[in-house]
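Hi F.,

I've been meaning to write this up properly since the lab meeting, where we talked about keeping a consistent format for the predictions we share between groups. The idea is simple: the sequence comes first, exactly as it goes in, then the structure tokens exactly as they come out, then a line or two of notes. No screenshots and no reformatting. I'm using this chain as the first example so we have something concrete to point to.
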Amino acid sequence: MAETTASPERGKLLSRFKPLVPGLLIIIVIAFASQFVAEHYGAPSMLLALLFGIALNFLSADETARPGIEFGAKTLLRIGVALLGVRISADVIGSLGWSVVALVVCAVLATIGFGFAVSRIFGFRYRFAFLSAGAVAICGASAAMAIAAILPKDDRSDERLIFTVVGVTVLSTLAMVLYPVIIGVAGWDDRQSGLFIGATIHDVAQVVGAGYSISDEAGVTATLVKLLRVLMLAPMVVVAGLAIRMRMTEADDTGKRPPLVPVFVAGFLGLAVLNVLGLLPAFITAPASAASGWALLAAIAAVGLRTVPQRILNVGLPAVGLLVAETLFLALFAGVGLSLLN
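Output, unedited:
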């Protein structure tokens, strides 16, 4: 009897999953190809997945592939962000000290505030201001995708997201090369170097690359500071989601108000709290962390597949100027703050 009951349920599940298969296979292949090229040639895997997706965007016009691509761009994105919570541990805060924690929190908040303040000068409203400043201040492409998930949607949402992901990735790569040179001229020690790199470079991979190019101590410190910035993602998204929900003046394409706390943000917070309390064993956190990376890689490939390349160019030079201004502000704020601490 139980077998008979389970069979229709299994059939219903398969009927829901089957339409997703073609699109999911495409984004999985792109994700693996991006990771392979990244490991062999040192290029950022997120940027590669995005560019491969854009190059193959004609595939999204195929009706059989579209459901899986949409699933990747939305659901996989949220799963990837939620699983980022397992990367947060008590060591992140304990080994840095409260003065550094306060500086990093202030740097994140100040950069987002700066983005809102100057966005009007560059001709942008709150959507691109928060998207770009959040990506610069918190954790690059991952933050951009998480923030995009809670912003009200319009016909330029994907365009803004793609530009932000490309922009912060390129700026992170430039910073990975330039910041160690600047640090060498400034004469900072390994700990100071790691603190600056972790507090200023946007994407995790480039933080690791820049930190360990100086020394092991700088690399470890930079990674811990970067994870502290990642920890800021959930509170910022929750606060922003509440603000948008309370005073939304523009309806999104679905006509729905955003949820009080998005499920993926609650998942991030829950996993982070469990890991900080030491309740998640390594055999769970290690694969969950890896799954987060793969889910985000597949999600950005799906976003690329949905993008019309010509539309990215419509964002224009003012958007480049805003991203660069936010990046320079963050570097200046962190540099002055570290000088005062020491």
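Notes:
Residues 157-186 form the longest helix (30 residues).
The chain has one domain: 21-341.

If this format works for you, I'll send the rest the same way.

G.
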